[in-house]
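FIELD: query
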Amino acid sequence: MGHAVVVLAVDGVEPFDLASACEVFSSGPVADHYSLRVVSSDGRPVRTSHGYPIDPAGRAAPPGTGGTVIVPGFSGEIDGRGLALLRQAHRDGARVASICTGAFALAAAGLLDGRPATTHWLFSDKLAASFPQVHVQPDVLFVDDGDILTSAGTAAGIDLCLHMVRADLGAAVANEVARRMVVAPHRDGGQAQYVKHPVPPIGGRLEETRTWALEHLAEPIEVSSMAQHANLSPRHFSRLFTAETGTTPHRWLTSQRVLHARHLLEATSDSVEQVTAASGFRTAAALRVHFRRALRTSPVAYRRSFGGASRADVDTRWRAAP
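FIELD: result
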């Protein structure tokens, strides 16, 4: 029995959110690591937001310590049994996550009190007004607050699920899942949900500069260097970069360096100092700061969990070693 993942379908469930969670946690590369169940609070069929019913596997039950409960977005109401499941799962030490308006269920259960959280930007004002004790962050793709995670809608739900797989099994496995789903392997949670101008579906004017930056991560690249490569002023470059990617050049560059460091820690035996230099961080201390900020663990602990492990013997615990 692998890591238990319980997807709680609430009346009015959004089928895309539900399917996204199921696809990520049952895809080929992770099939042996997760035990997935789709449930309802009483075991009966639930109506989707589009009107047709789905028949879950059974009645909701907490996954136990080390498991995960995911609430996809929904347009109905969650009943007392569903709220009790969420509270019990959290008390038992499970990881609890929501996609889109699933955050309203977590808030109603009291799990978001005093915590940062997000939901689809269309509903962020409603979440803040309905639950003033929740620190709503309306402009991000997802929020990882340790044992409680929330995401915006649709594609951001996939980002959150891949983020959890990455935390559980490492970047290489998460990237393999993403390839099978033909989606971006990593979008940082701090990226904007909504940008004023549509993000180009392929490339964009600054694609060549981003590619150049990725090929020169070990060098002391700054935002000014990227602007110079694009033959733009730093201010114009930053505005265009944010419009194309939904995040700032500095945040994107730091995220890419952390991702590269993760890859090196997983796939090579390079020392932390060598990984630091190859990833473009000036000091090992800087690498540790950004690594812990992004992953809540250290480079050494990350390598201990994921370095050189095959998919057959990867530790399936969701929380990285301290």
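FIELD: remark
The CA atoms of residues 4 and 63 lie 6 Å apart.
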